[in-house]
Amino acid sequence: MARKRVIIVGGGYAGVQALKTLAAWGECDVVLIDQHPYHYLQTEAYELIANECSMTRVMIDLVALCLSYGNHVTYIKDTIREVDYEAKHIIGNISGHSYDYLLLCTGSRTAYNGGTEGLRQYSHGVKTLQSALSFKQQFEQRLYQRMESEGGWCAEPFNIVIGGGGLSGVEIAAEMANYIRVFHKDNTLTCDNIHIFLIIPHETVLEGMEEYLIKHATKRLIQLGVNIINHSRITSVQEHALTLNGSEAVCFDFMIFTGGIVASTLTEGMKVAKNKKSQLIVDEYMRVVEYDGVFAAGDIAELHDLEGKLVPPTAQGAEASGLSAAMNILALIQGNPMSPSNIKLKGMMIALGGNYASVSLLGWIRFSGVVGYVIKAIIMRGYRYLLHRQCAKGVELIPQNKRTCRMGF
Ligand SMILES: Cc1cc2nc3c(=O)[nH]c(=O)nc-3n(C[C@H](O)[C@H](O)[C@H](O)COP(=O)(O)OP(=O)(O)OC[C@H]3O[C@@H](n4cnc5c(N)ncnc54)[C@H](O)[C@@H]3O)c2cc1C
After folding, report:
1. pLDDT exceeding 90 applies to what percent of the chain?
2. What whole-number distance in Å separates Cα of residue 305 and Cα of residue 287?
3. Do 220 and 308 belong to one domain?
């Protein structure tokens, strides 16, 4: 029997988990296509933004990763534009490829609130590594220019606005506040006048999450000097000012927007069931039932647990759904019955600036502070370490003269 060809589009948390599962089995050809040659560790983006780590700490080299599994696994750098689901053929900017099974893992992008005027133009995002880097560089430039032009310190207030009180908004607000606190401590005279505003539409941050996490995150944000402006919607944005709830104006020097997601643009051309965030409605086996041989995992799909409860878009959910989709593709190739996906979040870990985090795991392990930070760091570093170790095997296979520009080594 001819070997089946599985194409995974998107090397994020879902795609990499699926890749590991399919590649380890070895009985099919696996092609991973991503527009970037790295897996971006979004869950550690807050550290990059706050200068706690370098760019290479949040990247996993997809070329080396694919090489490490052997000849049956290939990485292709391309941006997929459309899919011919009848012909089982995908079309990218550079090339086209046929598949037996297709797994869509292209994630999500920032939702710019139905086109709120100026929001996309004047705010920074952190969903991609490029946007996170650009934010970090521009922020430091702006701060530097301000200090230069004002005779050594920020005489005028320097306002940073963060829109969105979910996981990423809270982590970024806390990490930046901590960064500024350290900056101020190290340079006592300068920058005593930087303010962070976290604008949230609900009563509290982390709406819908466990009370324990909400309480500790709020306490820590206040302790770090973050101004939480609740019950507020951003209704328009200009270059250095925004309007809240249609009237109140807030001036800012820098703005980050993290207020929600919509599925990747790849879903736009798909004539299938989708939710309001354009996420694909998949069945319990992670199949896009309208098309033969097509699966979807991660943020691109609406995920549910075994009881049918909605699972929020997280790296954990992406990994679990990527695993489930890959296992079911394997089952079909082997002629075995598929198994319903069992997506369970083991808990939540929220970085809250410096060596401080709040974690709630398995419904009973709860810690805030340094212990929370250590637990989060161990889990995050463990994820990165295992992938780097696998990549190292791939790097060994790259000819010596082509190794120099590979990342992370
Ligand atoms: C700042 C921040 C902090 C976060 N913190 C946490 C946290 O602490 N815990 C947690 O669980 N979750 C966290 N999340 C959410 C988590 O990162 C996402 O839920 C997760 O990344 C989703 O994984 P995914 O595989 O679906 O998509 P992604 O990880 O986004 O990967 C999608 C991949 O698809 C590729 N791609 C997209 N379109 C195309 C195309 N057309 N052609 C080819 N390739 C394409 C992209 O390059 C990317 O590599 C955070 C998110 C952010 C932004």
Report:
1. 66
2. 15
3. no
Assess whether the C-beta atom of 166 lies below 6 angstroms from ligand 1. Answer: no
Residue 351 placed within a domain: no
- Judgement on whether residues 205 and 313 belong to the same structural domain of the protein: no
Q: β-strands 158-163, 194-199: how paired? A: parallel
Atom of ligand 1 nearest to the CA of 172: 1
- From residue 409, how far is each of 132, 271, 380 by CA, in Å? 22, 43, 19
Which of the four pLDDT bands, split at 50, 70 and 90, describes residue 187? low
Instruction: Determine the atom of ligand 1 nearest the C-alpha atom of 11.
Output: 49
pLDDT at 404: 55
150 C-alpha to ligand 1 centroid (Å): 39
In a domain, 350, yes or no: no
**288 in a structural domain:** yes
Which of 106, 103, 107, 104 is closest to 28 using CA atoms? 103
Whether residue 171 has its Cβ less than 6 Å from ligand 1: yes
Residue 408: which pLDDT band, with cuts at 50, 70 and 90? very low
- Taking CA atoms only, the protein residue closest to ligand 1 atom 39 is 106
Cα of 13 vs centre of ligand 1, distance in Å, is: 6
Each residue of 92-135: pLDDT tens digit?
A: 999 999 999 999 999 999 888 667 889 989 998 888 899 888 88
pTM (2 d.p.): 0.92
Cα–Cα distance, 360 to 214 (Å, whole number): 11
Expressed as residue numbers, the domain containing 76 is: 5-110+261-345+380-402
pLDDT tens profile 53-82: 888 889 999 999 999 999 999 999 999 999
Q: Is 61's C-beta closer than 6 angstroms to any atom of ligand 1?
A: no
Contacts of 272 (CB under 8 A, 6+ apart): 280, 281, 288, 290, 291
- CA distance from start to end of the chain: 40
Assess whether 241 and 310 both reside in one domain: no
In a domain, 395, yes or no: yes
What was the pLDDT predicted at 186? 73
| Whether the CB of 126 sits within 6 Å of ligand 1 | yes
Looking from the CA of residue 10, the nearest atom of ligand 1 is: 34
Q: Ligand 1: which atom is nearest the Cα of residue 298? A: 26
For the Cβ of 127 lying below 6 angstroms from any atom of ligand 1, the answer is yes
